[in-house]
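Lecture 7, part B: from sequences to assemblies.

Below are the input chains for today's worked example.
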Amino acid sequence: MKDWILPYLKHHKGRISLGIFFGLLGIGSGAMLLFVSGYLISKSSLRPENIMLVYVPIVAVRAFSIGQAVFVYLEKLVNHDIVLRILEKMRTRLYKMVEPQALFLSSRYQTGDLLGVLSDDIEHLQDFYLRTIFPSIFGVITYAVFVSVLGVFDWIFALLMLLVLGTLVFLLPLLSLLTTRRQHTDEKQQTNKLYSQLTDAIFGQVDWQASGRTDEILGRLEEENRLLVKTENNLRKWKHVRNALLRLIIGFVIVLMIIWTDKQTGQGAFSPTVIAAFVLMTFSIMEALLPISEAVEHVPTYKDSLTRIQKIEDEQAEAVEYANDISLDNTSPTVTLKRLSYHYPGQSKKVIDQLSLNILPGKKIAILGKSGMGKSTLLKLMAGVLQPNEGNVLVNGQSMTNELLSKTVSVLNQKPHLFDTTIKNNIRMGRPQATDEEILEVIERAQLTNLIASLPQGLDTPMQEMGQRFSGGERQRIAFARVLLQNTPIILFDEPTIGLDPMTEQEVLNTILTATKEKTIIWVTHHLAGIEKMDQVIFLEDGKIAMQGSHEELVQNNKRYQKLYQMDRGT
Amino acid sequence: MKRKKGLPSYPGSRKLYASLTILIIFETIGIIAQAYFLARAITLLFDRVPLNDTAPYIALFFLAFILRHALSHFQEYLTENYAQKTSTNLRKKLVKAYFRQGQQFIQTEGTGRLVTLAIEGMDQLKKYLEIISIRMIRTFIVPLMIVLYVFTLDKISAVILVVTVPIIIIFMILLGLAAQKMADKQYATYRVLSNHFLDSLKGLETLKYLGQSVKHVYKINKVSKRYREATVKTLRVAFLSSFALDFFTSLSIAFVAVGLGFRLIDGAMVLFPALTILLLAPEYFSPIKEVGSDFHATLDGQVAMGEIDKIIAEDEKSDMTDQVTSFTWTPSSQITLKEINVGDKGSLILKNINFSWQGTGMIGIIGESGAGKSTLINLFASFLSPTSGEFKIDEKDVNTMKNDWLKNIAYIPQHPYIFPASLADNIRFYAPEATDERVKQVIREIELEDFVNEIPEGMHQKIGEGGLTLSGGQEQRIAMARVLLSDKPIILLDEPTAHLDIETEYEVKQVMLRVFKNRLVFLATHRLHWMHHMNDIIVLDNGRVAEQGTHNQLVKKTGTYFNLQHRLKGGT
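Predicted structure of the full complex, as structure tokens:
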């Protein structure tokens, strides 16, 4: 709460004051419209000889009626502008926060779409400002101004109003918050439970039916629904009680106003013409105080979002600082792994264990192994995004860091994201300063030229609109062209053909190998398609090399490899 | 998106609308009474009648004030009850429809969308039901009654009030159109800008590997700023419609007030009716103002209502009940597919499929992607019904025994669904009564023992969403364990091993082949090695059965299968 709300309020206090100022002018105009109208007809009923006596009120009535609409409009605009400004800042902050830990978030939190959730959380906080914070601040200030104005006439009555209206502004909202806090949390939990039960029911629909347990899951869903309805009913009951109380107090306040203005008139402090004016005005002031209770009641619903964001921020990995003056020697680099070991923080099991390997320039290496045997970790170490616990990864004798990424080493990761922009912009992301000729060249090499030529908008075709129409193979080629644009001597591939059907897989593979003849290729893969074209095949097991050799050597001498190769070939 | 407009009609809605109409008529009487007594009280005080003599009128005002709000609460209460009952009922029907429409329907509609519709969509519908009926009936009754009463007091004021409404409507339409035009014009850029942040987060890993992730923060900053500027620009126009509403209603009140003032000066009128009218004028506009609020809630509700009603209506149309039988597949049972077509006339997915098989055995289904392998598996599973042709089990139409048929089947997709429950409970999903001992035995049979021994809580370890994540090979083993424990006679597999690494694939295959023994197995895949073990192979080409036979027979033929084999191996 402190970190994600208050600083933004403070930072924007100027604009917020402006919003409140317009809001006050709006509510003031509404109140004055009724005040002056009341005064106008009271005064007119006395049939003044000179029409000029009511001239000012007539003009004022029109002015206030216009003012009301204008100021409310301005207030809304200012408030939305503030919220968007805050959103802007929060987005940047969230990005800076998750950027260093990007590669580990999914393994740490195990939720499919944590980043999507965080982005929603921030959007959700917009409502916190618009529906809770602004109306509350505004209500309290209206309350203060109203009581102060009354204080000018009669401080005892002002004191009375301070107390009576205080119940509207402070007591009931507080009561609301305390009464409903539990229920709002319950409601959220129950909705989440209903969500997961329903997801379960639908994802496992076949299994439920095949096991004859359909009624069981439907019954469970009904039960969850019943609990949720119960909570909702409790909330509803409170809402009605609260609103009834609010109305009762307002009715009471108006009666008090009638009595007070009458008394003031009796004492000669007021002219009878303002009785109607004061009473009418009170109606419109009360409207500004009504929303506070409901606004405050929603505070607990934002807590989840705030806690989630806070949690990620607290666990922020320490950013590693790299020296910037790395001199690059990109001519035929050798990659050397020297007794490399790695274990994830807080775990004792070594994912990579004393692994050594020497890869000469231009060689093609395939890395295989079961899931959990360290393939991806090895790739991350080689990409320099993970730092080894022992040993090192050397590129031409120089320690690999992620500074070298995109300059000496490129990575085509498993599910490369294609951004919601044009094909050209997507490819250009590989190297923003690349010329159009260079882009055309990598498109040629990724064998995309025909595809691009067939599109009416060519390179400027947006990815998203065509998202459904680009096949898996085409998407991979675009991602590959992006990596080619970086023009590095070493490329790491993380199962780039997974999920493609075998025919497409063969085609993509051929394209990639043709386009990277001169380069060093390290290819993490799960089966043996294209294995004959590799210079060396490595099987990892428990972080160590279990099998190693060229395809020909292994196929001749290694029983286990023979078995696997036979199966893969289907013979 | 289709929207349903007008008052929704569900069971109980007519009764509700009738009650609401009566309540709202009384509420309006309360509103008029409130204004009447307040005006009376103020007029008396204005004439300096002592407070004691005015007190009854003040009391009556207070009563009327309480009455109108009580009636308004009562309306809300009734409507909320109705909305809740209706939505609970609809949710039940909707989920039932999901289940009855089955797997094919779920796959096409998308699980996420269906879940969201049943929860968020239903909430939107509920909210819509809560607001729409009161609001629509109020808009008709309250202004009408008030203006009729005002007419008896002062004709000119009534005319001003009546005339304002069409002016408001015209301006709202004009501004609405302008806002729409602007929104349409900006839609494409607007969508990209608003999606940019989420898109960046989703692509963060890629940005990182591209070495662009640090620099990207400037872009986020820039785009967010452009997004804000574009949004504020749109809002400027969008808010104009509520501005117009405010503007014309308060201007109308001002006109009424000034007019009353002039007639009072002329002596054409006295204070009491003038004050009553002034008090009633805002009440006259209040329901009209409310119509425009919660625009998005209304829109979302209408869209959700359209979708929900459609799914339920379609389900009720295709209402089929199974004949009560109890069927178990035995070695003498026979499955027959006769002249089956699936798909629309112009684009058939399966064409003229004929197939029959008796008892146990392994049947491979092979073909290029898009040849119709998965559709054929879905057909065997009765997830979808053929467009034409016959699918019979022992001379009985499958449609009349779907539940029984499904109970014989284990359907195993590439990623079998793992429930968020313990490993043991996942394994005994089809056979909940199985003892821990049996589960242990099965774990041994599927060679998952080492893994179970290694994890902290053994077979009681929670897996699935929120628990331990399993690898692809382990998921398949769990699926096999389910089959073993429940002893299902039929197994349908859709590409079960292509995503596994080669070593795991080898191991899982050995387990599977053991489980397949003495069962009827249909296995769709493009991994050729499976074909050696099959008793029969259906070769699909473009939705047709191109060839059928054992591996050896088909190889000799040097036809479609032979060519396919060649191509899948990477030859050209």
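Note for the exam: The longest strand of chain B covers residues 348-358. Keep this in mind when comparing with the next example.
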